[in-house]
Amino acid sequence: MASTPVTHESRAVAHATRQNALRKRSSGRLMIFGFLSPTLAILLFMVAYPVFSLIYYSFHNFSALRQGTMKPVGFKNYTFLLSDPELWERFVFTGKFVFICVTLQMLIGIFVGYQMQKNFRGRDVIFTILMMPMMLSPVVVGFLWRYMLNSEWGLVNFLLSSVGFAKIDWLGQTTPALWAAAAADTWMWTPFIVLLATAAFRGIPDTIYEAAEVDGASPAYRFFRITLPMSAPVLFIALILRLIDSFKQYDLFVALTGGGPGSSTQTVSFTVAKTAFSYFYTGEASALAVILLVIIIGLSMILVRHLTKMGEKY
Amino acid sequence: MAEITLKNLSIEFGGFKAVDEVSLTVKNGEFVVYLGPSGCGKTTTLRCIAGLVRATSGDVLFDGVRVNDLTASERNIAMVFQFVSLYPHLKIKENIVFPLKARGVAKAEIARKLDWVTDVFKLGDELSRYPGALPPGARQKVALARAVIRDPAVLLLDEPLSAIDEQFREEMRWELGHLQRQLGVTTIYVTHDQREAMSLADRIVLMNNGRIVQVSEPDRMFFDPVDVFAGQFIGSPSMNLIDLAPVEGGLRLGDSDVTLTAARDLLPQWALSAGRPLKLGVRAINVHLTDDPSFGVALPVDDIFSVGRERFFSFRIGDTVHQGVDKRSSTAGSEGRVHFDPEGLLFFDAATGRRVGAEVAA
Question: Is the distance from CB of B248 to CB of B286 less than 8 angstroms?
């Protein structure tokens, strides 16, 4: 039979090809794992382990100062925290701070961004200068504003008194301190909104504006019906990022107010740090950190879902 | 609807004259097509009529009223752009009613108008979709619907069909012409595609280097070009252009020793006596092969090839290759003599490019 050797041969070839493919596939998988493993190791060690121990501590009565006294207490840390009116005040303060910051930053950021999308002389220079606060560390910003707001020799009170206003004890009272912190955060982070808004506005093609102009839309109508909705996806991302970030704000307050007067300008994360490292109620601090984590994961999930949806739409 | 008048319109961009002293009146309800090569100033002229580009000098008049200082929104024009300019974040329905909403038209009126354009453009299914979900042709149809929904004084179309696939373009072109006659709206259309211009226009405005070369009906544009540029730009394949020297007893073709004898009588005496070099323009459809030795001239025929229904041939004068259309009835083949239809001969002054020997509409 003349066809037999051919069949054998072709079978052998097919076999070899399959073996080859298998080897290729498994070596490919090995490669992928090889490349991922450093990152995975770091993530496991730096993220997964701390998070799990955090959750573990949160269910125990434990102080990092007294090793070996760890006692499981179930949800007691959580119930204690959630029934603590002082903690609710921290949440209310943080909420106020977030609301003021994000509102101011979005409004100013969008306005400035809209001016920045236009071409004018010196635009690039102004843009670069505008971006500078964002490059500083929050602690630096905190101290900078603390000096400016010093009630005796600060720049702000100097200016106020030179035009006849009374000096204000900015950082010694709760409400002025809240506004001072919001101002510092806004000064620092509005550039971020400006950056994203300018990019979003510039991404809208000229013909769209021309079409709108021909269609009889006034500048205001164009802004609210074309510019804003078309850049909404990007602005929404900016909004969520700022929400998350200002909600976590800690270092600015350390430098600016130290949480005072009293504990009235402590944000939730400030309280976590204080509980953990001043009072060393490690279990309680862990429980609070877990609550904070859940809230931030919630916010991030909105962001992630939005990003995925955006990918589908455009 | 309105009559549009351009008076000595010039538009400069940093010293470059994109549009140079253009004057034209577009009559009420007329369909005028601006035709010309890229960079000839046709789109700039259109954008100036729209109010998107400012005139450097000269005036734009709508029904005799100067509109130079009015913005695009104030001019009551509608425009369809070359690249789709639908609002991507709005549904088709919202896109179409945008011009009405922007002008604060009453809701009932908007609904009535929307019904009307939906009907005219057969858009029922698309209304609740987003522009991104439609093919380019359908998007441009929506852009057209958005343009006509509010009875504009003038409809401006900037190469609206150039981004659409060939097959759908033909269909859209037909629909567009039909729609324009139905609405009777004054329409100015810009294109570089002579077929679009020929099939749509009441009048074609041919532009080159920022100036108007010729304004005439499509037929006359083809048969009566005012100069070499007009003759060569219109028609496909391009008009043959042959150097011509008046000699004793005829007109010598190029550097050959062939002369056309009878053609001499077609030229006015002044053109011959001046002895200046001429150019002969003749379209392929006016050049044939013949086997009658008493007819035509002896020129080397290179090649005969069929393109669909037509059979083309090429012949040489000196080193230049020209084209003609062989009538199927002839059996001459490449041994035949080349015959020029006398009525298809166009003469141009070689120095200025202007047409010689015919009364031509400017």
Answer: no
Q: Running along chain B, 362 residues long, what does each successive block of 10 average in pLDDT?
A: 89 89 92 92 93 91 91 90 87 93 91 90 87 87 90 91 84 88 91 90 93 92 90 88 81 81 72 76 88 79 80 85 77 74 85 73 40
For residues B72 and B181, state if they share a domain. Answer: yes
Same domain, A175 and A304: yes
| Distance between A201 CA and the closest CA of chain B, angstroms | 14
Q: What angle do CA A299, A302, A303 make, to 5 degrees?
A: 90
CA distance A302 to B214: 62
Q: Which residue range(s) make up the domain with B171?
A: 4-228
User: What are the two backbone dihedrals, phi and then psi, of residue B170, each rounded to the nearest 5 degrees?
Assistant: -55, -50
Lowest mean pLDDT among A1-10, A79-88, A134-143, B34-43: A1-10
CA distances (Å), B180 to each of B31, B163, B187, in order? 8, 20, 8
Mutation for testing the A interface, residue in B98, B100, B105, B148 having most A CBs under 10 Å: B98
Question: Inter-chain contact B81–A205, Cβ cutoff 8 Å?
Answer: no
Over residues A136-162, the pLDDT tens digits come to 998 999 999 999 988 888 888 888 888
Q: Is B78 helix (H, G, I), strand (E, B) or coil?
A: strand
Q: Determine, for residues B85 and A213 on separate chains, whether the beta-carbon distance falls below 8 Å.
A: no
Residues A91, A33: one domain? no
Would an 8 Å CB–CB cutoff place B77 in contact with chain A?
Answer: yes
B49 in Cβ contact with B6 (< 8 Å): yes
Question: B129 with B68, same domain?
Answer: yes
- Disruptive mutation site among B71, B84, B85 for chain A (greatest number of A CBs within 10 Å): B85
Find the helix or strand (DSSP H, E) in which A62 lies. Answer: strand A60-63
- Rounded (5°) CA angle A122-A126-A130: 170
Residues of B in contact with A210 (CB under 8 A): 52, 72, 79, 81, 85
Beta strands in B145-275 (DSSP E): 154-158, 186-191, 203-208, 211-216, 240-247, 250-253, 259-260
How many angstroms separate the CA atoms of B71 and B87, rounded?
A: 21
Write down the ipTM of this complex. 0.80
My answer on whether B146 and B291 are in the same domain is no
B160 φ/ψ angles, rounded to the nearest 5 degrees: -70, -20
B4: number of Cβ within 10 Å: 23
Q: Does residue A67 lie in a domain region? A: no
Q: Are residues B216 and B293 in the same domain?
A: no
How many structural domains is chain A composed of?
2
Among A214, A217, A225, whose Cβ lies nearest the Cβ of B79? A214
Q: B354 CA to chain A: closest CA distance, Å? A: 39
Q: Is A217 on the interface with B (CB under 8 A)?
A: yes
Round to whole Å and give the CA distance between B12 and A227: 30
Q: Whole-angstrom Cα distance, residue A277 to residue B349? A: 97
Domain encompassing residue A138: 82-313
- Number of folded domains in chain B? 2
- Kindly report the nearest CA distance between residue A225 and chain B, in angstroms: 9
Q: Has residue A38 been placed in a domain?
A: yes
Find where tokens 């929104």 sit.
Answer: B73
* Cβ contacts of A295-304, under 8 Å, gap ≥ 24: A295/A247, A296/A244, A296/A247, A296/A248, A299/A240, A299/A243, A299/A244, A299/A247, A300/A240, A300/A244, A302/A240, A303/A237, A303/A240, A303/A241, A303/A244
B297, amino acid identity: V
Same structural domain, A212 and A272: yes
A84 interfaces chain B, CB cutoff of 8 Å:
no
